[in-house]
Every structure is written in structure tokens, then in C-alpha cells.
């Protein structure tokens, strides 16, 4: 489905953005691993997180919808049932990489996971390797790609240094570590910590300390059962980022986004915007905070001129999903905006270095790809044209925001990709422009 986004008048008003995708996935998975029913308020109703609900139901959990909440009646930590057919993860990389952590210790049972065309291009060796060291066996297509099968086994604890700062891999190993004497994961730089927070809330023994490189070392150990009274999912900062960028770029805009998650491990984009001189006000969580609850705040955005900035490797995991928007902002900033150390972008739902650079260049941007990032020369404007989503939700939404800020509008080819995280984006924009 193609959709046109015309140059926009001011965006004004208050709005609640969709619920956090990362936290929703974890609420469904940890809810399914729990022994007592878990109530989840504000679960994200979008394609990716619906894949997770379907997956946990296939494994034996019961999901009830009640008064706008979900109640998940789990299987318990060690009692996932092997379904008779493959688990379809759809387009959801987070589901594909976290779920095997749980499945890997369902002794004697095997689980096949598969997904859509895009998921079949995304590597799983990054989880197969540590899970294999713990004692599970993973058989993947060409040793690296879905479809793949997880053969559950008795696991032993490991100490694992993440070769890349990936919250998905970290989370997978920590979930598997729940049935070992002790499993430690060290990350080179901090990445989102929703799994650690939710496990702590569920009573798992989890300890975290700062390591020399700047990241954290996290240890989990033997857990009899998980008990989570409830999860209240905040608004998704990564979805909010699209409206924040629109508010910064579209003349005379002023908008407030309500109850957005401001966990500091997700707030990298807001800090980048601060450096660019954008006027975005929010009560952010202090860096380094670790406690079981997820903080929320209203985010107040207004249109203002911006300056170029440089994003280096250590900041990348804290803003990984928002880096395409940094490229767009760079088109309007004074100077050269540079993103480096972000090679991980190449293995997202699309190769987000190639698709962002080609997509924005096609709209008139002066942007060059680097092996691990990009450089954008700000010209203060963007002509417009056509942008292909490549089936990647963040590309589709990038094209939409680019259209609002452009001179001639943007036609997004494949806007339906946005359904995995932000299905009602066009409606929300219409509400803010009215
Ligand atoms: C996610 C982690 C990030 C992010 C993805 C969601 C998560 O991926 O890009 O959209 O929920 O843990 P990586 O862990 O591969 O960096």
C-alpha cells in the first residue's frame, strides 16, 4: 500500500503514542514463563507483538482480553509445551531472539521457529552460539538463518562477553541463565535493560555492576518461579520519536506526547536532539539508574532551528532504532551530521544504512553512506519524492515524517510495513494537524 504525506501545517495538541514494543514483547514472554497470572495494561496492539501473543499461546499460555487489559496465564518456567507445528515469529526480530532463551531449557522438547521473508535474512548465530555453549542445540539454515530449531537441554551457566551491544542477545542469554547456577553477561556499552528490570520485578535473582568499558555486567541465577503482579506498558519512545522529529521540523509545531517511556537506556535520541539544539522538554531518568519499574514522562516538543551533531559508537545502542531519524534531522541541521559505529543498522528489518541513504537521497538529501553509518550535509530543506519502505516499518515512518517536513511531499511505497509497530500513524498525524 502506497501513501502520500504532504508538506504539513503545524502539528499541535496532545497525544498518547502506541505502547512500547520492546516492553510488550517481554511482558508476553515473561508472563508466559510465570507461575501466576500476569495482568498487562496497555499491551501494544500491532503485528509484531501480536506474533508474540500467538507464540506464547502455541506454547501453552492462555491469553485473555479483559476490560482493555490482557491477562496472561503462563506455563511456568520449565513447562512450555512443544507445538506440533513451527512457531511463526512473523517480522519480529525481538521475539525470534528472546524466545529461544526460554525454549533452550525445555528438556527433551524441540521447537521450530520461522518467520517472514525479511526475518529469514536476519542472523540467529548470535544467540545460537551462547545457547550452544550453555548446552542447548540450535540447528539453523546455513548455520545462521531461520527457519531454525531449538532443542531444549539441561543448561550450565556461562560468562558471556557480548561481541556486539545487543539487548536482544543479552536478554536471550539472561532468560536461559534463569535455570543455571549463575550466568553472567557483559556488554561493552549499555543497551536497553527492560529484560533486567522485568526479571527483577518478577523476583529473579539478578545483580548488575558497572564494568570498565562503560557497559554493565549482569548475573542471573537459579530461579524456581517467576511472579509478576502486573505490567503497565509505557508509550514507546521509538514510536514517539517520529512525532518528535515532525514537531521539531514542521514550522510552528507544538505538541505534547503523553506517558512516554523515559528509561535512560532508551533516551539516546532525546539526548542527541538536545545537542542539536532542539526544544524538547522531558523529565528524563538519570543515566545509570536501575530499578524494576519503567519511568514515564510527558514530552513537550516545539519547532526550532537545529545544528549538526556526531553520534559515536557508545551512544548507538541507546538510540539504535532512531538513527534513521537522525539522518532526516541532519538534512535540516546547520553543518554535517555524522553517525559512526552503527554497523548493526545493516542487519535490521532492512539494511538501514543502505535504505536510509538511498531513500533520503532520492528525496534530495546530501547524504553519504559509511561502512558503519552515514554523513549528512544539512541544506535546511528536503525536496520530496518517493521513498521505498523495503518492508521496514521504520523506513516507512521515516518517509512519512520526511513528507511532512518536505517541500513537495513524499509518497511512501509500502506504508503497510508501519503496522508492526505504529499502525495508526497517519491517523495520529491527521489529529495533530486538524
Ligand atoms: C530490541 C533491541 C534492538 C532494537 C530492536 C528491539 C529489543 O535490537 O533494534 O528494535 O527489544 O531488545 P538489537 O538488540 O539487535 O540491537
Helical coverage, percent range:
25-40%
Please tally the helical runs, counting DSSP H or I stretches of 4 or more residues. 12
Percentage of residues in strands: 15-25%
Largest sheet: 4 strands, mixed
Derived structural class: alpha/beta
Poorly predicted regions: none
Kindly report the spatial arrangement of strands forming the biggest sheet: 2-15-17-16
Brief account:
The chain has 434 residues and is of the alpha/beta class. It is built from 12 helices and 23 strands.
Overall description:
The protein has twelve helices and 23 strands. The protein is an alpha/beta fold and 434 residues long. The radius of gyration is 21 Å and the shape is globular. Strand 6 (87-88), helix 3 and strand 7 form a beta-alpha-beta unit. The chain has helices at residues 21-33, 47-58, 93-103, 125-134, 167-176, 194-201, 237-249, 268-275, 323-332, 352-361, 393-405, 425-433, and strands at residues 2-5, 12-16, 38-41, 62-66, 69-73, 87-88, 110-114, 137-141, 145-151, 159-161, 182-186, 206-210, 216-221, 230-232, 254-261, 279-281, 296-302, 310-311, 336-339, 366-370, 373-377, 385-388, 410-413. A four-stranded mixed sheet has the order 2-15-17-16. A four-stranded mixed sheet has the order 4-5-3-14. The chain has a four-stranded mixed sheet with strand order 6-7-9-8. Shikimate-3-phosphate binds next to helix 5.
